[in-house]
Amino acid sequence: MSKINSSRKACKDVFNAFLVSLATYDGPFEIPRIMPTYDIPLKLIAFSKALSSKDYNQCVHFYEDDYLFIRIWRNPRRYLKVLKRFSAVILPDFSLYRDMPLIMQIWNIYRSRAIGHWLQLNGVKVIPNIRYGDRRTFKICCYGIEKHCVIAVGSHGNMRNIVDREFFCQDLII
Question: Which of 65, 92, 126, 139 sits in a 20 to 30 Å window from 45, CA-based?
Answer without folding.
Answer: 139
